[in-house]
Amino acid sequence: MSATVSERRSVPRVRAGQPLVTAQEVILVVVIAAIWVVLGFTTPAFLTPGSLQPLLVAVAPIALIGVGMTCVIITAGIDVSVGAVVMVAAVTTGKFLVDTQAPLPVAVLLAMGVGALLGALNGVLTAYGRVHAIIVTFGTANLFQFLGLRIFNSSTVNGIPSTFEVFGRGAAGSFLGVPISFAISVAVVLIAWWYLRNVRSGRHLYAIGGNAKAARLIGIRTQRSVLTVYVLTGALAGLAACFVIAQGTSTLDQSVGAGLELKVIAAVVIGGTSILGGRGSVLGTLLGAVLVQTVTSGVTQLGWPSQLSDLLVGVFIIVAVGTDIARKRLRSNR
Predict the structure, then answer these.
(1) What is the value of pTM for the model shown?
(2) Number of structural domains found in the chain
(3) What contacts 24+ positions apart, CB below 8 Å, involve 20-26?
(4) Please, what is the average pLDDT of the chain?
(5) Which domain holds residue 109?
(6) Phi and psi at residue 164, in whole multiples of 5°?
(7) Which residues have CB under 8 Å from 209's CB, separation 6+?
(8) Closest among 68, 65, 44, 86 to 248, alpha carbons compared
(9) Which of 237, 249, 264, 268 is deepest in the core (most CB within 10 A)?
(10) What is the pLDDT of residues 318-330, one digit of tens each?
(11) Could you report the per-residue pLDDT of 153-212, keeping only the tens digit for each?
């Protein structure tokens, strides 16, 4: 009985007095602002609409998938298959548009449906198969990639109509100077932020990541919650596939989605979500996505080797993870 009581007490809760913005999010804002100021002086074109709008368009799919990934990592899971999910959703939707000239809502629902279906497979294997998430999603990443290549049929998808131009970099893809895809991502982030703070099922995700066994003992349906976050991540990856298609031309090649999972996980970890589970913020993920893409764009505009952006992002990840582990040890000692 004493063990049960101890486990119940160890379940984290989101208290009403919790600050709206964390210290790490404030630090990220300062770091991003400092980098933007430096880049503004070294490459004056960086702070022009012609440079910032493409940057925000590139941030949109990272932040969007990052919302789902944040929820997954909060539950002490991970999903390394999101890049492959984007690939399958993109090529399926691209071929569908070429064949049918379907309207925007139908194409978006198809992409999100494909993503949700693939995410459901990850969720079922993780939640009900009781296989560790890294093993499941690494395996399904290869499975999804094979599926996507089969759909590509060893060729590019050509002649994709401009159905998704509203999510792109052109005039049709912005409203009052703000990219529509970025605005959608910010809206999703704000909804998720409110949900995780104020809705019981959202707060349950923190409990599952903090101590899954204790969460079950107090009546939380852990398996259903875990399945839900993987389905959500897949659906958001499907919507992100629409954003990715809109960033390119009328041709879609087999590299679509490649490496996207690394940028998403980097944004989530840099944003302050604990890789150990039980703690995280989607606002931090949005800022992490902006930082990751800012570094990438800045390195490109400065004419530095592209590998340097990977190095800098890697340093940010190490610092974020190291800080998280040190914080956890300090709390344990207390």
Answers:
(1) 0.92
(2) 1
(3) 21/283, 22/272, 22/281, 22/284, 24/271, 24/272, 24/284, 24/323, 25/271, 25/272, 25/281, 25/283, 25/284, 25/287
(4) 90
(5) 49-257+274-279
(6) -95, 15
(7) 12, 73, 74, 75, 76, 274, 276, 277, 278, 279
(8) 86
(9) 237
(10) 988 888 888 777 7
(11) 878 999 999 999 999 988 888 998 899 999 999 999 999 999 999 999 999 999 999 999
In a domain, 53, yes or no: yes
Q: Which stretches does DSSP call E strand in the chain?
A: 174-175, 178-179
Neighbours of 204 (CB within 10 A): 21
* 15 assigned to some structural domain: no
DSSP-assigned beta bridge partners for residue 252: 157
Burial (CB count within 10 angstroms: exposed 0-12, middle 13-18, buried 19+), residue 147 = middle
Q: Is residue 5 part of a domain?
A: no
- Residue 238 β-bridge partners: none
Q: Would the pLDDT of 144 be above 70?
A: yes
For residue 262, the one-letter residue type is L
SS3 297: helix
- Residue 9: the pLDDT is 43
Q: Are 245 and 164 in contact (CB under 8 A)?
A: yes
CA distance 274 to 266: 12
- Reported residue count of the chain is 334
Rg (alpha carbons) of the chain, rounded to whole number: 20
* CA distances to 63, 113, 274 from 279, in Å: 18, 29, 5
